Amino acid sequence: MRLALITTLEEFDEAVVKSLETLGYHVIIVKVRGLSPEALSEALRSLDFDYAIVPGSSPHDYEGLGFRVVKGPLSPYTLPYVLQLAGPDALSPAVQAEKVLGPKVMADVAGRVYTDILSSLDPAFTVGSLKVPRNPPPILVASDIYITESRAGDAAVEESSYRFSEGADIVVLSSHPNLDRKLYLNTLEAVMSTLRKPVAADPARLETLVEAVDMGAPIAMSLTPGDLDKIPKTLRDRAAYVIIPGEASNWEVRVESLEKARGRALELGYNSVILDPIVNPPVYRGTLESLIASRKLSKLGAPIMLGLNNAVEMADVDTHASTATLILLAAEAGASIVMVGEESYKARGNTREAARAARIASISLKLKTPPKDLGISILDFKGKNPPEGLKYLGRGRVRVEKPGLEVDCRDESSLEELKNRVFWGLIEEACRPWI
């Protein structure tokens, strides 16, 4: 089948063309100045093709043009995946491919994209069987567990197992520096030997960290530049070391500190280094500082970790929203590892939320498209469309089709009277955030 790919770009990525040719299509690239039906009619008049595919972002309707013109996805990088699952005859001349195919097909697209991300990854290094990306995608999720006297031993193993089941790629065992050294190390050993998955040691005390690496911890957290000389030479190639800046007054200072620390680490024989510029709380002192530092450091070629707990916990915002937004920004900033926790009540389930957000961000990066209509979402609170049987009328008003009742979500007294009705669940969902 012959495809005419319509583009306004000066250069069309040959990788897309090769992927389509692998699927058996013969591809013609047609460059146009505009996407109006008139412009397309002129450009296609003398060409021999079966289907012309226009970018999904085009605002025009090509029905009745006289040619078989359909809209593809928003990004050309999505097109080969779409045509793997649905031929061009399944596409529409009026509506972009993502909308026509719907969430089920797009979820399949997302799964195939993510599989390709993982299979083609050239890692900076590996931790056991885990490939650590130099730059995203993918984005790995580390989940922090704070070890205490009551959360140690079997309790820590159980909690770690839960975090991995929720989508964590790495579990971080952190603690107060005054926690009993043997209790921490015994807990670390129990988690590593029982689960046999990537575990990071973060005991907040250098002597304990050295012992943790010596007993086999694959990741060692929170080294300052001044700590690099204190790790025994025999242990410097035994783990991946996460280095934090010696000073974090502003992003320039952090970047300079970590640039020098990475250079020094390589001189001292450290093989696997991760840089963590430290995430500030929002607004004051400012999460943006940390993201700028991450963006600058990502060009060094070392993986970047961003611990999001400071930003998530220090804002009274639902974690599924704040975590997803931060991970999308982390992806733009070049971070390939994000760390979250579940210590507070509001952060329950944050590992699962982060794992979904990391996948969405990774797929979005791969396809070079906004994280929309990919078949997966984090629309847990409001949803994307009203529930069946209900219509949103605007200005906080909804109508329940049966029994044909119109409701003002801002009228608390009338809502109270409806709480025992069978359709209350529909109203409760549609009236967020007023309820």
Could you describe the 3D structure shown?
The chain is built from 14 helices and 17 strands. Helix 5 (154-165) crosses helix 6 (181-195) and helix 11 runs parallel beside helix 12 (350-367). The chain folds into three domains: 2-100, Rossmann fold, CATH 3.40.50; 125-367, Dihydropteroate synthase-like (TIM Barrel), CATH 3.20.20.20; 390-430, no CATH class. The longest helix has 23 residues, at 97-119. The mean pLDDT is 95. It has an eight-stranded parallel sheet with strand order 12-11-10-9-8-7-14-13. Strands 2-1-3-4 form a four-stranded parallel sheet, sandwiched between helices. The protein has a three-stranded antiparallel sheet with strand order 15-16-17, covered by helices on one side. It has helices at 14-22, 37-44, 79-85, 97-119, 154-165, 181-195, 206-214, 251-268, 287-297, 309-313, 319-332, 350-367, 412-418, 424-430; strands at residues 2-7, 26-31, 51-54, 69-71, 125-127, 130-132, 140-147, 170-175, 199-202, 219-223, 240-243, 272-275, 305-307, 337-341, 390-394, 397-400, 405-408. A hairpin with a 2-residue loop joins strand 15 and strand 16 (397-400). It is α/β, with parallel strands linked by helices and 435 residues long. It is globular, with a radius of gyration of 26 Å.
Q: Approximately how much helix is present in the residues? A: 25-40%
CATH homologous superfamily title of the largest domain: Dihydropteroate synthase-like
Distance between the termini: 53 Å
Over all CA atoms, what is the radius of gyration? 26 Å
How many distinct helices?
14
Strand count, sense and barrel status of the largest sheet are: 8 strands, parallel
**General shape:** globular
CATH class group of the largest domain? Alpha Beta
